[in-house]
Amino acid sequence: MTPRAPRRYESKRSLFDEAVPGQRAYDPKSSIFEIAKNLAAATESSTVRVSDVENRAVMKGFTARQIQETLDDYADLSVWQVRKTPALPRAPPCGLGVTCV
Fold first, then answer.
1. Residues above pLDDT 70, as percent of the chain
2. What are phi and psi of 30, to 5 degrees?
3. Which of 30, 85, 90, 96 is the most buried (most CB within 10 A)?
4. 74 and 68 in contact (C-beta within 8 Å)?
5. Cβ distance 60 to 16 under 8 Å?
6. Rounded Cα distance, 1 and 8, in Å
7. Which of 48, 42, 56, 43 is nearest to 79 (CA)?
8. What's the rounded Cα separation, in Å, for the pair 40 and 34?
9. pLDDT digits (tens, 9 = 90+) for 15-53
10. How far is the C-alpha of 18 from the C-alpha of 24, rounded, in Å?
11. Cβ atoms of 60 and 35 closer than 8 Å
């Protein structure tokens, strides 16, 4: 038996496991994505705060690690963009009528 055979078997078995009618497979990333999608739909916006997604996901029992992995993975796939907001306000740029000290 080649090393790939067990992986193929496992993959095939998981397909059959997921095919149970009326029952969804437990996938944290898909569930967290659904939370974000539902928040966007509820606010009729294409922008959702990460903190809102985090709060709802934590309330449903997901870990901070699962949430961060989901955010990163979907951002890597260009499904969404995560904007990092600075923790401290930035100083205004010099010039354009702004006096810098």
1. 58
2. -65, -40
3. 30
4. no
5. no
6. 12
7. 48
8. 10
9. 444 445 555 557 899 999 999 999 999 988 888 899 999
10. 7
11. yes
Torsion, CA 65, CA 23, CA 44, CA 54, rounded to 10: -20
Which tokens belong to 74? Answer: 């979907």
Lookup result for tokens 């449903």: 60
pTM over 0.85, yes/no = no
C-alpha to C-alpha distance for 6 and 4, rounded to whole angstroms: 6
Q: Tell me, what amino acid is at 68? A: Q
Residues 83, 20: Cα–Cα separation, whole Å: 38
SS3 of 40, please? Answer: helix
CB 29 within 8 A of CB 21: no
- Assign 3-state DSSP to the chain and report helix, strand, coil percentages, each to 5: 55, 0, 45
* pLDDT score of 87: 53
Domain residue limits, the chain: 24-82
Hey, what amino acid is at 77?
A: L
